[in-house]
Design goal:
The protein is an alpha+beta fold and about 280 residues long. It has helices spanning about 1-5, 10-25, 30-40, 65-75, 100-115, 130-155, 165-175, 185-195, 200-205, 215-225, 240-245, 265-275, and strands at about 45-50, 50, 60, 65, 90, 95. The protein is globular, with a radius of gyration of 23 Å. The two termini are about 45 Å apart.
Length: about 280
């Protein structure tokens, strides 16, 4: 109720993600019957899969999931094990482990909550709340704004190339090796480098090896994306879903494939730079 009343789509998405993460940890502790029941309520056609030996002892367990439901849920994952060709499928059902079933169910929970909260639409809900709840909601909004500012300030002062996400690493290498980049690829690379703190001059130099390089045109485009021309707006790179749609996503790594993967290349970059920092010595 409090989150809904903020009419903040980002806050709604974060709340949905937090609830999905909590559900995932709880589902991993449940038995097969409970997971099956919850998954079915969310539209996942699933059932326990148990194999017995001649002594009637269970030799393996897991779940069978309708392959259409599997494809819908697993399409956001790019790790090889999620590819349908690498799965065991019988009679239109895909075999998954308990952990995988919990993860797929948690993804459905997140999508369900985002839809109910209006996290991806312009839907605004007016609620008449008691003043005590209104006061708490305002504190929640202020805390969220504070955290967003902190995250914006977390970006490293200097560009850390080793912390680039795999998709940007590939684009950066292609540009350096005189390879051809499409318009969307050039925009993605340019906007990422600028937001990662790379100076305009260095960004322009990234494209110099290209056979069709024009310094005047390249500089104009880079400055425009940096907010120095036109409307003055500094652009950010497309989110991961958009990059996947355009075939720019390379399949990801352990950070991309983590249960609570980043939704944007800059989120990946911030997370990777934090992981690369040496742990402070104990006092």
């Amino acid at each position: 109720m409090m989150v809904t009343s903020t009419n903040d789509k980002l806050l709604k998405r974060r709340y949905s993600l937090a609830e999905a993460k909590r559900a995932y940890n709880l589902l991993r502790q449940e038995n097969e019957e409970k997971i099956t029941a919850i998954a079915k309520k969310l539209g996942l056609r699933t059932k326990p899969a148990k194999t017995y030996n001649e002594n009637s002892r269970i030799t393996s367990s897991g779940f069978y999931l309708n392959f259409i439901d599997y494809l819908k849920g697993a399409s956001i994952f790019h790790e090889r094990k999620w590819k349908l060709v690498n799965r065991t499928m019988q009679h239109g059902e895909v075999q998954v482990t308990k952990d995988e079933a919990a993860r797929l169910t948690a993804e459905q929970i997140q999508a369900h909550m985002e839809e109910k909260l209006g996290a991806k639409t312009d839907l605004k809900i007016d609620l008449t709340l008691p003043q005590s709840v209104v006061n708490r909601t305002e504190k929640l909004k202020q805390l969220h704004l504070t955290l967003r500012k902190v995250q914006e300030e977390e970006m490293p002062k200097e560009t850390v190339i080793d912390a680039f996400p795999p998709c940007v690493q590939k684009l950066y290498k292609t540009a350096s090796d005189k390879g051809h980049l499409s318009h969307i690829e050039r925009f993605t690379l340019t906007s990422f480098l600028l937001n990662a703190g790379m100076p305009i001059e260095n960004v322009v130099e990234c494209f110099r090896p290209a056979s069709d390089f024009s310094e005047k045109m390249t500089r104009y485009q880079v400055e425009h994306i940096a907010g120095g021309r036109g409307t003055g707006e500094k652009y950010i790179p497309p989110k991961c879903d958009t990059l996947r749609t355009h075939g720019i996503c390379t399949g990801g790594d352990e950070i991309c494939e983590s249960p609570w993967r980043p939704l944007h290349p800059l989120q990946y970059y911030r997370k990777k730079t934090r992981l690369m920092k040496p742990n402070p010595p104990h006092q």
